[in-house]
Amino acid sequence: MSFEPLISKIREKNNPTVMGLDPILDYVPNYIKEKAVKEYGDTFKAAGEAIFEFNKGLIDAAAELVPAVKPQSAFYEMYGIEGLIALERTIEYAKAAGLYVILDVKRNDIGNTAEAYAKAFIGETKLFNSTAKATPVDCVTVNPYLGIDGIKPFIDIAAENDKSMFILVKTSNKSSGDFQDLSIGDTTLYRTVGAKVEQWGAPYISESGYSPCGAVVGATYPAQLTELRAAMPHTFFLIPGYGAQGGAANDIVGAFDKNKNGAIVNSSRALMCAYQKAGDDGTNFKACTRDAVIAMRDDINSVL
Amino acid sequence: MSFEPLISKIREKNNPTVMGLDPILDYVPNYIKEKAVKEYGDTFKAAGEAIFEFNKGLIDAAAELVPAVKPQSAFYEMYGIEGLIALERTIEYAKAAGLYVILDVKRNDIGNTAEAYAKAFIGETKLFNSTAKATPVDCVTVNPYLGIDGIKPFIDIAAENDKSMFILVKTSNKSSGDFQDLSIGDTTLYRTVGAKVEQWGAPYISESGYSPCGAVVGATYPAQLTELRAAMPHTFFLIPGYGAQGGAANDIVGAFDKNKNGAIVNSSRALMCAYQKAGDDGTNFKACTRDAVIAMRDDINSVL
């Protein structure tokens, strides 16, 4: 299965977009924040409530149009336990709305520690005489710096549970080249990591031709996207950096295969804060997000 | 300040050991588990209670003897919100016992996302009209794959708040060489990352000669430890892999400077599960852990 559920949702909605859910309080409409503070004071609890209320509206606005959402764990962890409760409620709400949930956690460790992370997100935790799901999502992001020891537990647990992962290969940020672009013989680190990701996923390729080991490749590096698509024919791509970070539709076209498959493009701020750009006070944030989602879908489809 | 509070605690206790707190349920003595299940059933809540009860005992047993503890986030995240509540309680209990708390989270991201993580653990989160601390510890582990964009927010926030971090350089696992040992011109990736860590910390060196940018270097690679100590004279080391992973006292001696300073050695399982090795049923786990802590301290000090 691996990425099959995501791929079928992308086809059904004709939209290879994932909506990022990075709900820092500055993004949340004032009326939602005021209500939360009135009820819970200037507290983490109020922050958690405001975030979940905002996310619910974003999901309501976009669920019909997008196949997936990607909550960024950092923006929930920064609000402590209350933030993490908001994350759990958001995941539950998104799944009930039929969305594929990619949790952006960039976890990495070795042996039974990596296994603990994999169990937490895409597997099951052993309790005393039973097992239970801690924070169940469809897919997580992981960091490859520790080598296969850090990835294998995710692959095994993804294969058992029909889940998937995106492994960082060439990230969208300015300094991604600090290490990723270093020359290794006649190649580079990101190409070497990309080749390993392709190899690690090879035994698990499913109907659509993709393995559960996806890769993160930034929209801000179009040449590398095209190059990696050719070098990694069985690796599904998650593409950050479209919109706010500067990537345009023409920059990402090379990430797709000849069937217009093989990649999903993330946008967080441009979709979540569409109301701010539209000069709205936040009252109509859902309609503004909906318009922005349609514009992004049409922008991407225009080049495919 | 940076690592000064840790260094003074190491000197005071004459012990460069950090006790890892990786409390998977298999490690927890039966009588603690039975009590938790009796009270809360076969649930995450019971797991959280059992974990915290065990951690309390471990901290009680070791607080007089060790300068620091290192909870591994994965083993709390795998028990969901209840696991994270146990983590918060453990951090609070350890700080009240005068211990330096290193949270092993290996977080990594870019820009305002990396900043959100840094605020969550070593800074403060902005709420509505105030700021508050989400999961306050003294030090975190971070992963360097995304380059300086992913590290700078941690450095800035550490400098503001007298906190510190350990950046992965050469990890203790078998496959750490998959990428870390690759040749980059006449050097390797881990050496290149090590040089950057030394450089990033340089503007923030404090009295003892160390910067807030520490490095993780595994006990399982003694030659690299010695080599990196020479190449990174202002970088404090966190050394995993002693004991259960196979590193011995003689393997880590090269990580220390001529003043017997510059490194702290982690042990998790060998200290937490000392009662199992001693053939105890768990009733006397505190005494067994205390003996194991003393044995480890004396083993390390014998080679310094």
Q: Your description of this structure?
A:
Two copies of one chain form a homodimer. The first copy, chain A, contains 14 helices and twelve strands. Chain A is globular, with a radius of gyration of 19 Å. The model of chain A has no long low-confidence stretch (mean pLDDT 96). Chain A is of the alpha/beta class and 304 residues long.
The main β sheet of chain A shows up as: 8 strands, parallel, barrel
- By oligomeric state, this entry counts as homodimer
What value does the average pLDDT of chain A take?
A: 96
- Uncertain residue segments of chain A: none
Overall number of strands of chain A: 12
Instruction: Name the structural class of chain A.
Output: alpha/beta
Radius of gyration of chain A: 19 Å
Helicity of chain A, as a percent range: 40-55%
**Interface with most residues:** A-B, 71 and 71 residues
Beta-sheet strand percentage of chain A? Answer: 15-25%
Count the DSSP helices of chain A.
Answer: 14
Shape of chain A: globular
Strand order of the largest sheet of chain A: 1-2-3-6-7-10-11-12
Give a brief rundown of this model.
2 copies of one chain form a homodimer. By secondary structure, chain A is of the alpha/beta class. Chain A has helices at about 5-15, 30-40, 45-60, 75, 80-95, 110-120, 150-160, 175-180, 190-200, 220-230, 250, 270, 275, 285-304, and strands at about 15-20, 70, 100-105, 125, 130, 140, 165-170, 185, 185-190, 215, 235-240, 265.
